[in-house]
Each structure stands twice: as structure tokens, then as C-alpha cells.
Write a structure and sequence with these properties.
This protein is mainly alpha-helical and 248 residues long. Helix content is 34%, strand content 7%. Strand 3, helix 6 and strand 4 form a beta-alpha-beta unit.
Length: 248
């Protein structure tokens, strides 16, 4: 029995992850938000979005948000740092009294055009090393296990670059006119979305302007087992695309 003797990696992982953000949700790693500047023109665009914070908080079940930005739209202008999953041993009815041999954290970063993905991944790796960890890109050897008290395998993963087309560009103005003509309503202009789309690689490589038009309901639970699309959003989407193809 090695409880109270063998270090539990879950506690060390929890400590490591918790140190990456402050209590208000901002990344503490130096330089993480470098290069992000929100001028008066950008702030005017962001503040024009009619978000309802009370409704947003009720929908996702929180009392207050992280403070990366002063509001929802501002928060989307910065690269994120998200822990999308942690794995260690077993829980619920499969739980057993053990000290786990390892814990795995899956981290994702939502990029913005000002971000350099390699730089951000390098900052995270450096942060881990500064916490006293010997960092390797493979499973540690027995010799390394008997040499270093803190071990971490770091797998940087792949990258999907972001894209952003300026609001009031030629394609944006054409799209706004099409929506107003076909839907009899002015669209809400969002500078950048909080998500990644696979088509971004083609947009950036071909250097073509592109605009995303979300048609789903805000409570669609994207990427979750109960992802959904309301019928009204489907029929509204059909009407929108008809207007897009018919408008000269």
C-alpha cells in the first residue's frame, strides 16, 4: 500500500492547470495575449452586438463569466486556453482505491489572427518546465522516472489557423444587402466567432474573403451528444440561402 507515499499525479496536474489562469479566468502565462489591440473602431463594432448577458448566463448556467474581456464579444478577440478533458483511473461505480499511475489533460487553444500557434504552444511548454517539470515528447524511460521527481509528456498536436474578413468589406456589404432584401431585417455583425471551422485552411491558402453566417439556435449544444437544430432555424436558413442565391 503506497498511499501517502507515492505522489498522486492528479493533484500535480490540478495544480499545474490551475496556475495557468487567475481567479477571473485570464491566462497567467506571460506574453499569451501579446499582439491583441482593440481600437475604437473595433470596440464600436463589438459594442453594437445586442448580446443579453442575463440570458447567456441563464442558458449556460453561470452567475458570472471569465474576465478575459469586458463582455462576451471582447472575450472572443483573444486566444483561449481550454481544458477540454482530464483522464485518470476510474470514477463512479468503477472507482477503486488506487493511486493513479498518470493523468492526461487535453488542452485546446482557439486562435485569433494575431496569434502564432507555435509561439503559444511554446509558452505553455515553457510554463510547465518552469514549474519544475522535465518535459519530454514521448513516454518517459525508467531512467528518467528514477531521475526526475516531476515528469510530463508534452504533445503539441496540430493547428487549424483562424481567419477574419473585415466588416464593411465588399463581400460583407453585399451579404448585408442580400439579407436585408430577403429577410427584411438587418443582420447582426460579429467580428469573429469563438470557434474553428475546417474550411479556414482553404480560405487562408486561396486568400479569398469569406463570411460565416450561423443559422443554428444559440442553445444547440455544439460538439455535445445532444447537439440539436430547431426547425425554425432550419426553415429560416432555407429562406436565407434562397435570398442569397436570388439577390443580384
Amino acid at each position: 500500500h503506497y498511499g501517502n507515499y507515492a505522489p498522486n499525479p492528479v493533484f500535480r496536474m490540478a495544480e499545474l492547470l490551475a496556475g495557468m489562469k487567475d481567479e477571473e479566468g485570464r491566462v497567467t502565462i506571460p506574453g499569451y495575449y501579446d499582439g491583441i489591440e482593440l481600437g475604437d473602431h473595433t470596440l464600436k463594432i463589438l459594442n453594437a452586438v445586442p448580446d443579453d448577458p442575463v440570458l447567456i448566463h441563464k442558458t449556460i448556467g453561470i452567475v458570472e463569466p471569465e474576465k478575459v474581456g469586458r463582455n462576451y464579444q471582447e472575450s472572443l478577440q483573444y486566444p483561449s486556453l481550454n481544458v477540454r478533458g482530464i483522464e485518470a483511473a476510474w470514477v463512479d461505480d468503477q472507482a477503486r482505491t488506487i493511486v493513479p499511475e498518470k493523468t492526461i489533460a487535453s488542452i485546446d487553444i482557439r486562435l485569433v489572427p494575431e496569434s502564432d500557434p507555435d509561439r503559444l504552444k511554446g509558452l505553455i511548454k515553457t510554463y510547465i518546465q518552469e514549474q519544475g517539470y522535465f518535459v519530454t515528447d514521448r513516454e518517459p524511460t525508467e531512467k528518467e522516472r528514477l531521475t526526475y521527481p516531476k515528469l510530463a509528456k508534452f504533445d503539441p498536436g496540430g493547428v487549424t489557423m483562424p481567419f477574419r474578413t473585415d466588416i464593411h468589406s465588399e463581400i460583407d456589404e453585399w451579404l448585408i444587402q442580400s439579407i436585408q432584401w430577403g429577410m427584411d431585417a438587418a443582420p447582426v455583425n460579429i467580428r469573429i466567432m469563438g470557434g474553428t471551422v475546417p474550411v479556414a485552411g482553404f480560405i487562408n491558402e486561396l486568400k479569398v474573403p469569406a463570411v460565416i453566417v450561423p443559422l443554428v439556435n444559440a442553445d444547440n449544444n455544439q460538439h455535445s451528444p445532444n447537439e440539436n437544430l430547431r426547425i425554425w432555424n432550419l426553415t429560416n436558413g432555407i429562406q436565407f440561402f434562397l435570398a442569397l442565391m436570388v439577390k443580384k
